[in-house]
Amino acid sequence: MSDLRVAVLGVGVMGADHVARLSTRIAGVKVAVVNDFIDARAEEVAAGVPGCRVVSDPLEAIVDPEVDAVVLATPGPTHDKQLLACLEHRKPVMCEKPLTTDVDSALEVVRREAELGVRLIQVGFMRRFDPEYAQLKGLLDAGEFGRPLVLHCVHRNAAVPPSFDSTMIVKDSLVHEVDVTRFLFDEEIASIHILRPAPSPGAPEGVQDPQIAIMTTPTGKHVDVELFVTTGVGYEVRTELVGEHGSAFIGLDVGLIRKGVPGTWGGAIAPDFRARFGLAYDIEFQRWVAAVRRGADSGNYTDGPTAWDGYAAAAVCAAGVESLTSGRRVDVTMVERASIKGA
Question: Domains (ranges, CATH) in the chain?
Answer without folding.
Answer: 4-127+276-314 (3.40.50.720), 128-271+316-331 (3.30.360.10)
